[in-house]
Amino acid sequence: MDLGLRNKTVIITGGSGGIGQGLVVEFAREGANVVSASRDVAMGEKLVQQAREQGCPGTVMPIATDVTSRASVDVMVKQARERFGPVDVLVNNAGGVKRNCAFENLDEETRRWELALNIDGVVNCTLAVAQDMLSRGQGSVVNISSNSSLLGEAAQQVVHYGSTKGFVNSFSKTLAYEWGPRGVRVNTIAPGWIVPHKDENISTGSFWNRLEFVGTPEGMQAALDAGTLPNMNHLPLKRLGRPEDIAYLAMFLASDRSSYITGQLVSVSGGVYMP
To answer: What is the pTM of this model?
Structure first.
């Protein structure tokens, strides 16, 4: 199916992360002009090369961006507009856990860090593209949440992170109602465990480098092959989730093929969450 994304201007925040890399390359494969907005520009340059090597018809442009700063976001959107034209699609993918701990041990630095990234970042970027979308009466915002906002067990040791993603869920639904009559759709994807294909796909700021219990992508695949990966018995679809699993749904929600869908939340997690 042709999703009609060719030459669309797409901003993907957190483009250097595991899920972000999949989003950037797959949107470029559909012919979109993709801005990879991330602090890790070096990884963004690698994505430029990767998209070229894979023959993606779209263009990838990495822009150094701190989504917690409205000024930084405004500069990024301005550069995107100058090169590609008005923003058609925003994927608010930047987010993360600073550290895992029991809730009673949550420190102020961790709390503020997660609030700034997971809440302020989404609000900053959405406000920054509002004029482009609302003035033309068209656009799609796809917010990346987490199963940690939907399942208590998925938020073990990351209660505060899961709660910030709960904000994203509510924000998406209420904004979808407000912006729907003005032609702009807002939807949410809640990933479960999404694992890059290789260890080299981990960016410097990734949670894979911060959280001790996570392990490595290749280590998780090895454990799955050996039958020792925890919780796999409870997963209806018994394979690892991959970045492209998120990208495929994000592209559908970004496209006019989903023009009658807004305010929805879909878990991409192998069936671990079923509402």
So the answer is: 0.94
